[in-house]
Amino acid sequence: MAAKAWGGRFQQPTDELVEKFTESISFDSRLAEVDIRGSQAHARMLAAVGLLSDEECRQIVDALDSIRRELADGKLPQRIELEDIHMHVESALIERLGDVGRKLHTGRSRNDQVSTDLRLFVRAQIEKIDALLEGLQLAFVERSPADLDVVVPAYTHLQRAQPVLVVHYWLAYCEKFQRDRERLQDCLKRVNISPLGSAALAGTSLPIDRHESSRLLEFCEVTANSLDTSSDRDFIVEFLAALSLIAAHLSGWAEEWILWFSTEFGFLKLPDAFTTGSSIMPQKRNPDVLELIRGKSARVMAAVPQILTLIKGLPMAYNRDLQEDKLALFDSVDTVVACLEIARPIVAGAELQTESIQSRLEEGFLDATALMEYLIKQGVPMRSAHETVGGLVALCEQKDCRLADLTLEELRAKCEQVDDDVFGVLGTKNAVAALCSYGSGGREPVQHQLKTWQERLNLS
Ligand code: ARG
Questions:
Q1: Is 278 labeled as catalytic in the residue annotation?
Q2: Is 418 near ligand 1, meaning CB less than 6 Å away?
Q3: Residue 86's domain is classified under what CATH number?
Q4: DSSP string, 206-254
Q5: pLDDT of 209-226, one tens digit each?
Q6: Could you tell me if 243 and 140 lie in one domain?
Q7: Of 220, 228, 395, nearest to 315 (Cα)?
Q8: Is residue 399 classed exposed, middle or buried when 0-12, 13-18 and 19+ CB atoms within 10 A define those classes?
Q9: Domain that holds residue 413
Q10: Shortest-distance atom of ligand 1 to CA 322
Q11: Is the whole-model pTM more than 0.85?
């Protein structure tokens, strides 16, 4: 009969089917590094309170270091009868140290251990993803000075609405990614709390010092209630929700650039190295990477309801259901990291098709709102100005011309407040130049935004 850590009360060996069904080593071996760090801190705490001698602690810490190296070199074989990463590490320790190794699990259980590991893992991922988000913001901000003269149509309902500087688009993405970064930092407050020493669910009668192990692992606080701690996976749901918004922002950007890359839009050329061809149509250049960024966002978003469904209705405290949390967590992290890594060089390397953009910039009455606002400045009530310009647009459509092509007489026939300075607001260039409110897409407000971003990202 295999010597299970929990085998004391059992008369029969575990069925092979059960071993296969319950193991998690096939996916949680990824937690090896944080598991060992957590165990070393736990051992040091046990020594600090006298539950281990200093010599025993030293042996455990050293042996864990060598187990870490073996794991990294792939030299520690996976044995499904050892269930998970926690038992693999502990059994390797006991193999090396015998009774001293058998002391490590004093005052803790796998329930607080797995929570510790997951919190350390998520904390590290937050740092990594934050840096990747910053890198993507940098890609947008770094190309902005060179793109500052480019004006593009901006859309609502995917219909041409008003012109803006293209940099207004770049900085709009930066804002979204900034909120994503802030959300991660907010989530970190609830991740960065030590569960270690909550033991199985009720704490322990042993004189452990949870604040000491928390300090050693650089957590900010210690969880207050062992029942809550043992059952809590809120921090994973929150983290996945933050990742889902990152995925949503990436997906929206990808969709936009897929459109911009099309012949119909012709706004953007993606770098050759980041596009793919067709096996049958020789002329094709496809934005497969962007499509996959859009497509992969689905898995990240699906992780949120998956974990909510997992925890819904579980009685306190730990239940084995919780072992399933890792699959969605790891997959979402890997997906978001991969998308962010590949997005940066695409943003940096894409070329604006300025001639093609320019050639159709006077289509779609992008200056209609500017004309309406001109009339408002001339004293026309807003609703009347709106109606007047609507009538002028209809007239242009009849005549197949632009607002700027109408004569002063035609303009004045619809509204006598029009003066000849009206031609200073008509046309896309004038319309974008007129945008001046805080946060708008005109030159000065965009330059102001850009300066703020350059300072924020330490570029100036
Ligand atoms: N592999 C388990 C998990 O990932 C570790 C905790 C097991 N605890 C237990 N009481 N069986 O959740």
A1: yes
A2: no
A3: 1.10.275.10
A4: S---HHHHHHHTT-SEE-S-HHHHHH--HHHHHHHHHHHHHHHHHHHHH
A5: 999 999 999 999 999 999
A6: yes
A7: 228
A8: exposed
A9: 368-456
A10: 12
A11: yes
